[in-house]
Amino acid sequence: MGAIFTPGLTVTEHHIVQKDRRLPIEGDVDVEVGDVVEADQVVARTSLPGKVFPANVANQLGIDPGRLKAYMTKDVGDSVVKDEILAETPGFMGMFKSEAKAIVTGTIESISTVTGMVILQAAPIPVEVDAYINGRVVEVIPGEGCVVQAPAMMVQGIFGLGGEVKGEIANIEGGAHEVLDPAHLKADHAGKIVVGGAYITLKGLKRAVELGVAGIVTGGFDYDDIKELLGYEVGVAITGGEDLGLTLIVTEGFGHIDMAPATFKLLQSKEGRRASINGATQIRAGVIRPEVVITHDDEEASAEKFVPPEPTGISVGDTVRGIRAPWFGKIGTVKSLPVDLMAMESETKVRVLEVAFADGHDAILPRANVESIER
Amino acid sequence: MTARWLTLLFLLALASPAFADSAPSDAANSDDDDSSVIGVGNDSAGDDDDSAAGLEAPPGLMEAAAVAEGSMADVVKVPAPTELTVTAPKHNSGLNLDLSWTPHPDVEAARFTVARAESPDGPWEMRVEDLTPDITTYTDKVAEDPLNKGVRDQYYYRVLALPRGLRAQADEANLTKPADRFAFLDAHANSTPAIAGEPKGVWLNTSVGFLLMALIVLTVGGLMFWFTDRARKGKEVFIRRIPGIDAIEEGIGRATEMGKPVLYVPGIDELQDIQTIASVLILGEVSKKVAEYQSDIIVTCCIPLVREVADEVVKAGYYQAGYPDAYRSTNTRFISSEQFAFCAGTNGIILREKPATNIYLGRFFAESLILAETGFVNKSIQIAGTAEATQLPFFIAACDYTLIGEELFAVSAYLSGDPRLVSSLKASDWIKVFCVASIIVGTLAGSFGMDFVVQLFTAAGH
Amino acid sequence: MRTTIPLVITFVVGLIMLGEAFIPHWMYRIVTENILEWGVILAAAAFVLGLINLIQVNLPKVLAREPEWGYKLVMLVALVATLVVGFMGGGDRLSNGQAYKWVFDFVFVPLNATMFALLAFYIASAAFRAFRARNMEATVLLVAAVVVMIGRVPIGEQISERLPQIVNWLMEVPNTAARRAIFIGAALGAVATGLRIILGIERSHLGGD
Amino acid sequence: MLLLSAFEWLVRFQHMDRRWIFLGMAIAIAIPMLFPFTSEFSVDRSVKDAWQAVEDLPEGATVYISADFDPGSRPELEPYYRAVLHQLFTKDVKIVSATLWPAAPPLVFPIMEEIAEVYGKEYGTDYCFLGFKDGKELAIKSIGENLPKTYPVDFQGTPIGDLPVARGFKQLKDFPLIVLVSAGFPGIKEYVLQVQGQYELKMVGAATAVSGPDYIPYYKAHQLAGISSGMPGSAQYEKLVFLEHPRENLVHPERLLGIEGVNVLNLGHVFIVLLIFLGNVAFFTTRPKGVE
Amino acid sequence: MSIDPSTIRSVLATDCGSTTTKAVLFELTDDGWRQTYRGEAPTTVEAPFEDVTRGVLNAAMEVQELSGRTLVDGDQIKTPDQGDRDGVDLYISTSSAGGGLQLVVGGVVRSMTAESAMRAALGAGAIVMDTFATNDKRKPHEQIERIRQLRPDMILLAGGINGGTVKHVVAIAEMIAAARPRTRLGGGFNLPIIYGGNSAVRPQIEERLKDLSDLSMVENVRPIMEEENLGPARDKIHDLFMEHVMAQAPGYDKLMDWADVPIMPTPAAVGMIIQTIAKQRNINVVGVDIGGATTDVFSVFDDAFNRTVSANLGMSYSISNVLAEAGLESILRWVPFPIDEKGLRNRIGNKMIRPTTIPETLEELQVEQAIAREALRLAFIQHKEFAVALRGVQKERTIADAFRQSGSGETLVKMLKLDLIVGSGGVLSHAPRRVQSMRMMIDSFAPEGITDIAVDSIFMTPHLGVFSSVHAEAATTVFEKDCLIYLGSCISPAGEINEDKPVMRVQMKLPGGGSMDETLGFGELRLIEASREDELKGTFTPLQKQLDLGAGPGKPVQQVVRGGVCGIALDTRGRPGVQVPMDERRVPTLTRWVEEMGEYP
Fold this sequence. Notes:
The complex is a heteropentamer of chains A (375), B (462), C (209), D (292) and E (601).
Chain A: E1 9-22, E2 28-29, E3 36-37, E4 42-48, E5 52-56, H1 57-61, H2 68-71, E6 79-80, E7 85-88, E8 99-101, E9 106-111, E10 117-122, E11 125-130, E12 135-141, E13 145-156, E14 159-161, E15 164-171, E16 179-180, E17 193-195, E18 199-200, H3 202-211, E19 215-221, H4 223-230, E20 247-254, H5 261-268, E21 274-278, E22 291-295, E23 319-322, E24 331-336, E25 342-343, E26 349-350, E27 352-357, E28 362-366, E29 370-374
Chain C: H1 4-19, H2 26-63, H3 69-87, H4 99-130, H5 136-151, H6 154-159, H7 162-198
Helix pairs in contact in C: 1-7, 2-3, 5-7
Chain E: E1 10-16, E2 20-29, E3 32-42, H1 52-67, E4 72-73, E5 76-77, E6 90-95, E7 101-106, H2 113-123, E8 126-132, H3 140-150, E9 154-157, H4 167-179, E10 191-195, H5 202-209, E11 213-217, H6 231-248, H7 252-258, E12 264-265, H8 266-281, E13 285-290, E14 295-301, E15 304-310, H9 319-326, H10 328-332, H11 341-353, H12 362-386, E16 420-424, H13 426-429, H14 434-445, E17 449-456, H15 461-468, H16 472-483, E18 484-492, E19 504-509, E20 515-520, E21 525-528, E22 535-542, E23 557-562, E24 567-571, H17 586-597
Parallel strand pairs in E: 1-6, 6-12, 7-8, 7-9, 9-10, 10-11, 13-16, 16-17, 18-24
Antiparallel strand pairs in E: 1-2, 2-3, 4-5, 13-14, 14-15, 17-18, 19-20, 19-22, 21-24, 22-23
Helix pairs in contact in E: 2-6, 3-4, 4-5, 8-15, 9-12, 12-14, 15-16
């Protein structure tokens, strides 16, 4: 076997990006195959069922649940307004009358003669899904959503926090090894996506939130800071829903690591361009990595659904990055792919590859400990 | 294991005869040793005033006495007692005076009568007519209705030595009115001179024993605050797990699964009994849990007032749990204030409504086993708790879990999980340590003849 | 507010009653006696509430012919009957021939005695079930129990002259010791419970906070 | 096969229907009632002390009796109550009595009346019954402090001042001896706690077998001059009053219920002990290995 | 489908995990049943392949290449065995791909019927996403919101004993109905709901849930308070797993077609083999499978089987969660060298985001194994808390209980009664030195008394589990011969140790004739080399009277002990948890233990 399957990150100027835009539940799709869509354009919409409010009406009336139906003034499916009377007992000569009122505005979902519960459902909550990127609709999944495709610059990060945002790319001064601290952030960064450096300090991040920065893309930050920021530890790398105030994308990993030069260069060149970024990360089978997408709006987007080639794995000559100590973050090219298992310092026997690192060193390391950088 | 045997040994030590006999024995004698003596009658004065006192009786009474005079032939006066003292008890309400006298050595079996007057000249009022010769002290209450009638600064007392047969003659003469009677008796008996006594009300009891008691109360309170404060600061308070208390929640769960109610019996004593109070407190927590499980709780009460309070507590529990609508007033029931009728009624509920869990917490008597056995037959989980030592064996034999003595008072703290309550348990634990230490010290001191230590504690008991 | 007022009342009254132990003066006593008297009156008044509760619980069930309503009916009839009989006869109620005495002698006495007598049977069955020498402590308890049971009745004395003495020792030494331990613990628990209520730390009865 | 069935029988025995036990108990109790026999027993020190305290009373003294029992505890306490009444009346001691148990009056007063009649004693002058007072501990406190205020009238409504026997007694302290016949709460314990210590009263009592052990500490601490507990105590008291030290004016009752009862108790106890023994034998021969 | 075990000579078993598909070949050789070859390939459930069978075929191809036996025939597994190493007689498989079987359970009381339902679900190999109960402290509307979010594969609803509560069960059913839950994988299917509660409530349940879901009824999981009846619910979950969950995952229809017996959820298969071994040898067993995302613990104590899934304790995806739950301090106590704390956190974080990496340096390995200890320890604690006796049971008390009224819900996992611990999962099965696995298990499980320790050599317990359902005898033979590698036994006294006094005296024959008689103090860890074949007679005496080696406190134990590939470990480092000094003595102490065991180079 000449190639190995190793997870890689896409960092490329030219990529055909496909985005699934799906509703959480069934709804209406507003677009058709072939439509050209803008990033902010709504492509599908639906209503989530409203919150449900159960109330024990039988107990409120002080009656046996079995007789509840007899006293209900409303039936299943009726809509009620808050404080409207749902049920009442006739009482005795005007006394001992009791009644139960609706606690929310909504419709009656069910009436139980066993538990005495009346379940009210509040008004539905509308949900809309936008196109996220500028592009063309290449597929419609009826009732669920569509696939938007566009040629674009694509940079995948390794870990992110926060969801989808869109904004202009703003680079900070200094190179790929710059530490992003509050001093780098300016008021006009508000609403933008700030790219920079090897590491962002907690203070820097807090400052960015204060300023209203939309997103940050950087090399690394401290694992400890997550807890500081969110109030809880992220024990399992499934993110995207954090309420952080901005979206953070880390391209290299935890700790102080320079952003890979290629990544840095690519983003640097996009100053002022509008990007769509998403911090959602899911490191499980079916991995999702955070991403920065800048569509090439001047290019003609194909209406044909692009079928990506099967991953080929790493071959000799590919650029790879070490992803575990002692080669963490170092970049080199694959020199050879020995077949035999080899014992590492830890005595673990693994498949290895030989890498010529950029600084001139050659090393043999486990194949699992590199990732290919796709260009 | 070791701890258990140590406890046993300790208990044995506790029961050792030395301790048993020395502890609260009749050592109260020392209490009034240095009491201020207000008036002391001496022998000679007594003799002198003997007849004078009698003669000075008001004229009206003299007439009454004269009526009975006719049949007075063979009554021979006996000498009056000597050394009458009238003192205000040391730490007193200000309404009592202690009288003490010595019977005259020449007479053997005289009966004594005590009389009181507001001035040395009378009018005299008979306080007690017939005291047997072995009684030589008397505590008089100087005023029945002090608020309206007031208390005087001084009262005068005389003690009469009645000759044998005098009372019978008074009876024969049909002297039923106390004033007439006294006039008659006074006329035919020797009396001590009038001795004055000043009742002295005290606002603060400063005897050693009471100070000790106050100290204990203050220490418990202080420790409680200290531990509470620690709890507030986040210091974890470790408390031994009591399975019986954990079982309460389990029992509620069982009842829920079985679709049956929980039965709660808060004992059969009055509301003011501390066990009933503790039980009602627990009921609050239990009903909260029951409400959380959306189950039912039946409370049966033997005392109407307890029912009223229990009902409120259950209602509050449901309210707290957020299910005020699930509360039903008719589930808190007064059965009967007659012990066994109550017992039979509760048994009826056990057999008919088949509660899955029976909780008996509070003060129980003979009905304990009858309830618990009926519950056992009904296959209920039963949790009992009482500080009534006589009923503990029955509960232990027939119930799944039994809370012994003080555990009962810890339950509400456990169930609520409130750190402030839990920390108060810690406080009473420390007092217990103090008690154990005092017992050991007391026992040792008693064994080596150092009585003052024992007396210190005896005083506290009175 | 809902809990504050009761807490204040509890604190004030509790403190006053606690003070009784330390302040002997009669003027103070008048205050505490009055409070106690209110308590007694309250308790007596609650009997009326108890009666109402009894009727509230039972009468609707009889009227609605709920399952086992017969028992409730018997209860209600007995309640009314006893009440009527109790008012009859005045001070002479206790004399033979009076209805109240009759009810007492021929209804109450046998019923009450029966309930109490049940104990003998229940003790037998509970003892049979519970007394198993499954471990060291249980064995000690079991032996002690048997000795006391036999030693307390004449047969014990016929078995051995020493038995009653052993029983007396058991009752007076280990038994008393254990009881004292329970007393002391319970008394402290009672003090702590009392203080908790007075100080407002305990408020389960008010529905917590 | 036989062994197996024996094993099974033992297993079943451990979980037998408790009604069999009830039946056995009933038989054990019925035998001595149907075929009375006598058995020898000696008198405990505490019972003797209780008896002695009454004996020591001077002639003509007045005692206070609190008769706090109900029909349930009647078998245990009535023999004592009767015996002590016999003892008091033969000694010409007068009696003021009352009760804190609502169910007691119809029970205790007729007995007192009956025995008084035997000795020709008169209500009001030789004995009186003040009736029931509610309030439990509070009532005891109140009696201790002021008897006439607590009981302004007797059970029939006669003012206490019109009862010569009670005349002149203001407090419990005025009585040379207090006799408590107590089936539980309120009873001996409450009397000791509420008034004994405070007034240094001399008290003797009779308690049920269940609560008897509760009062041993008081007896040991001399807070109770003597105590008779349960049926055996009653029987021993009867023995002292009627058999060992009969006063010449004693009128022997037809039956001595305590002494009869103790025989019932005899067999009852033996039955329970037998049950426990058999239960353990069955348990240990059938328990699976490894079970504690 | 009935298969005659005697006709089978070769079996191909695959386990489709969430990342890799492992194929194992069992053959009837001259030496009896053996596991012969093994291969693996990435799982192909997700895009771009979206067909699980591709991964299966890739893995089978690897076995084919290694064994020379033809296994793949075009796009098919070749069955039956044509003879001459052509095809296999039986193809079987397990699966945990796509996150395994995810269930939501509901019951009335959390610690009673809800727990019984949970036990049934876990026993069936499911991951329980959430448990709903009347007393779970959530208001009904919160429960409804949560059910809407969860999207489980199915719901198991229990509650009430037979003839018990109606109200509560109906309330939960109504709540589920109001949530209108949907399946995880979408599609036009109704969510399968299994009702195993109070049988008297069936009509009401039907009325409320029938139209919304694919409702099936099973016998009550808790017919009376005193008993559980989990079998029917478990079987139903398996059936529905096949019918619904599997049928919807890409490629599974084909796989189901290939497989000769129903595909089992991986954990259910592991549970099966653990139960089989415990039953056959009449011992108490604890099994653990530590994976990347989850750690499964299985136990069989006195025939009571329990399984727990610690969903967020794993060595890669959830490694940061181990750090979060155990705390840095707890992990540090196993790291035998000084380490910068912030650096350690970042390292763990990086492992989380790059879960497939392999520790290359020794330090990395040591850190990883330190984390593994904590993951195992925490998972075992969770297991002990779950594997408890039934709650809510009336007890017949005797006076013997007066002094110790033991509460209910005591754990069934009694360490002193444990005979065998079996570890599996990458970090244990693939540790460079076996003794590392042994120490990890001793440290994390803290076995008491005398306990055998073994690992699954190459993670084939799932395969054997499903194989045992066809041919139990063959499966246990392979389990003993090829799967289970006995590392040795651990001898450790239970009870709190007085650190200043001698702890244990060991008098024992040594392999090769010699003997030892030594007294161990506190904090010692010794390894005596002995193989599984050595049967060494020994007397082990606890020297402090509270310490227990299995014969009761303070009593000596005379027993034959056996070693394994590592030997016999004598451990006096404290129980119930190993005590590690956290001051400057930490590194020297840990180094001493490492050297004594010969753990690291």
